[in-house]
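[SOLVED] Predicted holo structure with copper (II) ion

Edit: marking solved, answer below. Original request kept for reference. I posted the sequence and ligand SMILES and asked for the 3D complex as structure tokens.
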Amino acid sequence: MSVPAESRPPRKVLVVDDEPKIAEVVGSYLRAGGFTRIAAADLKQLSPDDLTSALGSGSGSGGCCGPTPAGFAGGKIPVQTIQVARFAGEGQEAEVVVNDQGYTPAVIVVQKGVKAKIRFAAEKLNSCNYLVYFPEYQGGLDLSKGRLETPYLEVSEDFTFECGMSMLHGYVKVVDDITRVDLAAVRKQVAAFKPAAGGGGCCGQ
Ligand SMILES: [Cu+2]
């Protein structure tokens, strides 16, 4: 079962081994996992836009994707708001608002064994949040292209969603009965959850 939509965008490619200053800057991005190493000789093939977007606007808080919303910094998932899916159509549905604050809610509870559809209300898209990727389903949605909902997903165990660069993370908790959810327990579990990608991405944090 996969999401038959856009796949993760290609990572930006950058590198420099023989120019210390640039290498120093680029190195931090490489360490954050957002880039793929290429030979310095090939660097000329990158456009100025690639470099600009990769290195940020110089404001210091930018980076290629802009600042990570506070609630999502370091791979954290805000747990204050949890949405329990509702039964509708052929299964169950939940909706997530996407804007500069990230995902609201970032935590959804769905019922095991009932097909689930997740909709995204693209309130404000930016270079970070326009792509929502579902690692466990190996697919994603390009919200900027109007792909605003997943197909019905077979639900068997917890899964996650994230922005294309793994800075914003959301969590879908699977329970046996959505009419009896222990929200405190879900909150506790998700608060302790560490995304595999470590909340890295090209922007660090
Ligand atoms: Cu991002």
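OP edit: Residues 65, 128, 163, 165, 167-168, 201 surround copper (II) ion (CB under 6 Å). Thanks to everyone who chimed in.
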